[in-house]
Amino acid sequence: MKLFLSVDMEGISGIVDTSYINPDSGVNYQRGRQFMTDDANAVIEAALASGATEIVVADSHNTMNNILWEKLHPKARLLAGSPRDCSMMQGLDESFDAAMFIGYHTRQGVPGVLSHTMSGVVRNMYINGRVVGEFGFNAAIAGLYNVPVIMVSGDNLIAEEARELIPGIRTAIVKEAVSRTAAICLSREEATAALKEQAA
């Protein structure tokens, strides 16, 4: 089984505000990079144990150079850097059996930890008249290649957003949104267990 992981940062375990995700000014950014790598590794480990034979990880946050390459699971290949023609979905094609979206967040203008859509200037995107965020937009790209999106991780509200678009999708909820910059976070151990359970 060939698996594509698009890994964003806002929905990663333990991340609650911009201090974790801003590479230029975030006082917690290096911690955020480790958390991001840890979440990716949890999913990779479970996927490999469940029969995945090839995994491509697309770093999908900001300049797309966040995941700690030297600490990523050795069985995964990392797509890093920008620009990319297909942004967060670069590298996906019809050869993949499934896609998972790790560390995702809700769309612009709705509750959720660090909610936004693509950038500070995009307010709404629509597909067939339905407003979508990064999750919905990227899932549509996967659909163009007939690749099912089978799992998302992040807060409880991205789980709801994802289930509205893809009923039955697996959701690894690693934190409960309190506000846009606050959340009740699972422990590292509990978050890892949730990620592994849903990925498997």
Describe this structure in words.
By secondary structure, the chain is of the alpha/beta class. Helix content is 27%, strand content 25%. It has 4 helices and 9 strands; from the N terminus they run E-H-E-E-E-E-E-H-E-H-E-E-H. The protein has helices spanning 29-49, 134-144, 156-165, 188-199; strands at 2-7, 54-59, 76-79, 98-104, 125-127, 130-132, 149-155, 170-179, 182-185. A 7-stranded mixed beta sheet has the order 3-2-1-4-7-8-9, with helices on both faces. It has a two-stranded antiparallel sheet with strand order 5-6. Helix 1 packs parallel to helix 4 (188-199). The two termini are 13 Å apart. The mean pLDDT is 97.
Question: Rg to the nearest angstrom?
Answer: 15 Å
Proportion of beta-strand residues: 25-35%
Run of helices and strands: EHEEEEEHEHEEH
Major sheet strand order: 3-2-1-4-7-8-9
Instruction: Report the span from N to C terminus.
Output: 13 Å
**Helix fraction bin:** 25-40%
- The helix/strand class is alpha/beta
Average pLDDT confidence is 97
**Molecular shape:** globular
- Characterize the main sheet: 7 strands, mixed
- Kindly state the number of beta strands: 9
| Poorly predicted regions | none
Helix segment tally: 4
